[in-house]
Amino acid sequence: MKIKTLIEQSSRPLVMGIVNLTPDSFSDGGQFNQLDSALNQVEKMLEAGVDMIDLGGESTRPGAEYVEAEEERRRVIPAIKAIRKHFDVPISIDTYKPEIMQDVIELGVEMINDIRALEMPGALDVLAQSDTEVCLMHMQGNPVTMQLAPKYDNVIENVLDYLNNRLQVCESKGIDKSRIILDPGFGFGKTVEHNYQLLAEFNRFKALGCSLLAGLSRKSMLGAVVDKAPAERVAASLSGAVICALNGADIIRVHDVAQTIDALKVVEAMLKEKKNNE
């Protein structure tokens, strides 16, 4: 089923569970980079009620090292095949490499989650030749350099302009707006202040006419406020998820699936009563 269809049918934001198939991700690096442990994590997320899974074969944390396509392929492809064999759940692949996109699209994944918004040479063509959905994210710089000294004239306007431009480029290539999801990119080339400006005005991105993804689970913008290690930022992550849910997020990308679903159920119940009493 298309992700957009799931969004339309759901009365709360979809919960996307993060499964990092990497040894060096900022929060859970090395926990799920073996196939058995990854499948076990997917099973736990499904039991908790996750709506979709996001697999990543290359860490995009600040300062992360580049991973060759062949190594990323070695991490990701067996996991897709195994999940397809054992579970019925939509799969998103977190990659910016067009050759990986091509491989995973051929395996029938539902979405490409691209931190570079299809800017890599060939990426637009790969998506244009498919009907796979895609999430376009804003990032200033690249994972190695993005947090050195991020600067904006106006972070909201600059991110809006970038995403709008990428939408236009995609549409010029024949990638219909109906299969595009947008992500303002919390933590990707932004200071703590920039991130909280994005959070405060998250609903402004609805003006672009696409579904929105929010990914701030366990990130340093939360650590800067609560002064806790990534794995101890669950409550802070839930606060961010609720704020985004109340301001137009359609997908919340998280590590802590069960807790996030509980929080969103409360939001859902409140919004239902609000609607009934309007």
Figure out the total of helices. Answer: 10
Strand order of the largest sheet: 1-2-3-4-5-6-7-8
CATH C-level name:
Alpha Beta
Helical amount: 40-55%
CATH topology: TIM Barrel
**Mean pLDDT over the full residue set:** 93
* Structure summary, number of beta strands: 8
Domains counted in the coordinates: how many? 1
For CATH, the homologous superfamily is named as: Dihydropteroate synthase-like
Spatial shape:
globular
Radius of gyration: 17 Å
CATH-defined architecture: Alpha-Beta Barrel
Report strand %. 5-15%
Can you tell me the residue ranges where pLDDT is under 50 for at least 5 consecutive residues? 24-30
- For the terminal residues, how far apart are their CA atoms? 32 Å
Q: List the secondary-structure elements in sequence, H or E.
A: HEHEHEHEHEHEHEHHEH
What does this structure look like?
The structure is a single chain. This protein has 278 residues and is an alpha/beta fold. It has one domain: Alpha-Beta Barrel (TIM Barrel), CATH 3.20.20.20. 43% of the residues lie in helices and 13% in strands. It is built from ten helices and eight strands. It has an eight-stranded parallel barrel, surrounded by seven helices. α2 crosses α3 and α9 (234-245) packs parallel to α10. The longest helix is centred in the last third of the chain and has 20 residues, at 257-276. The two termini are 32 Å apart.
